[in-house]
Amino acid sequence: MADQVKCLYCGANVPADSSHCPGCGAVSHFQRKGYRAGARRRFLVWLLLLTIFSIFMAFWLPR
Ligand SMILES: [Zn+2]
């Protein structure tokens, strides 16, 4: 059974894997699960790089 989400604009039930609401035609905000996961992973990588860079600069720069 496919997951259903409510359209943000008209409240109609939309299949989670549908790209557009069948009721009002608005773009669904729930379909890009892979994109969200990828964005979060990219954010964590950036956070890790920033942390390493900050530690490196803290030790490298003269105090
Ligand atoms: Zn809608």
TrEMBL record:
Task: Enumerate the UniProt keywords alphabetically.
Answer: Membrane, Transmembrane, Transmembrane helix
Q: Where are the transmembrane segments?
A: 43-61
Q: Would you tell me the protein name for this molecule? A: Protein nirD
Originating organism? Thiolapillus brandeum
> Lineage in the entry?
Bacteria, Pseudomonadati, Pseudomonadota, Gammaproteobacteria, Chromatiales
